[in-house]
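Hey L., structure's done. Input below.
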Amino acid sequence: MNLFFLRVLLFSFILNTFSQKESVSILTNDQGIRLIVNGKDFIINGMNWDYFPIGTNYDYSLWNQTDSFIKLALDSEMSLLKDMGVNSIRVYIGIQPKWITYIYENFGIYTMLNHSFGRYGLSINGVWTPATDYANEHVQKILIEEATKMASTYKNTPGLLLFLLGNENNYGLFWSGAETEDFPDDADQLSLIGDTSGRAMYALMNKTALRIKKITSSYPVAICNGDLMYLDIIAEECKDIDVLGVNMYRGKSFGDAFERVQKELNLPIMFTEFGSDAYHGLEKKEDQKSQAIFLLENWKEIYENTAGLGRANNSIGGFTFQFSDGWWKYKQTKNLSIHDTNASWVSGGHEFDFKKGSNNMNEEWFGICAKGPTNDKGSYTLYPRAAYYILQQVHQLNLFQTSVTADSISEYFSEIQLSNAILKAKKNKDFLINN
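Output:
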């Protein structure tokens, strides 16, 4: 056996040993609850990311395109994400393991893999069912099989951060389909649905989490809830999940979210969606400034509540919603090449365009980047808004320096320059309009 061959074997052994030791875990101690990646503290500076050229909708999949096209798209968008300090993206199943690894090895960005867990319906015995009945035995079998297949397929994928089940599925108990709506205000109806459909759903999520952990113990398993609705049922039925993920749009502040999750669940909280749209519904125009301010305040709270800083000590980060505008979100099958300005739901916390009795959340305008036209190759260019440059400053802060305190975080955020971010974004907007 020659020396070169021995070196190759040794190199392969080192790589295999490293990959086997690679792990993600949750650590709880007297300082709070932390996310640990390969033995080091990790804060999720995350982004909800997808790829939909203007004129397409949910039927389009980047992962069905050629490898050369996928690589071109990833190189363009992951470069922008890396430059703004993003270290994690949220992606739904469909992405092949090799692209998770490609993103990680080339850009240092991890992937949280999301199984929708029946949120948008299921095919049962060949029949499409838009509303998922989690108490149904066939549904339970299908979802457990799909989730365990996900765990088996991706368990040894470099760059995988954790598994996420669902996407505000508690809201999906009130309506079917993917388009965001308001849910009922009637307390009795909410309670009844929670105790029946909701309890069955959360119990199934917990059962599935246990099945995933039998396949691999190297990654935490999280669920995605809409705000803190049914937190009492989650406490009873989801005793084996590792992280509570929440989609939360309360405005500039998350309020009591950190404290409640800490006291009622004793779990880390991870914001799977949050932020603001970039459209002013009352003035009928783009509003980059308000979007940037809301994200600045949101991230300040996320950082202040990390372990060891004396507050709730259970924040492990979040995924800003979202990287680029979704021109298909309103109506979903119509006007796909029109940037609709119709608001489909309401948030009183987004006071800059809130008016009682009217919706103010514009689903097609949540991007921290505006989306350019689709070219003849099927790709597009992104144009960062002010929020991009704000987050670029936010994510430069190293939370794990010994000198970091809640007060120093507050001081750091007070020095972030909004005016500079707005100026940079204006140049991008002018370029998009004039080209």
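The radius of gyration is 22 Å. The chain has one domain: 42-434.

-- N.
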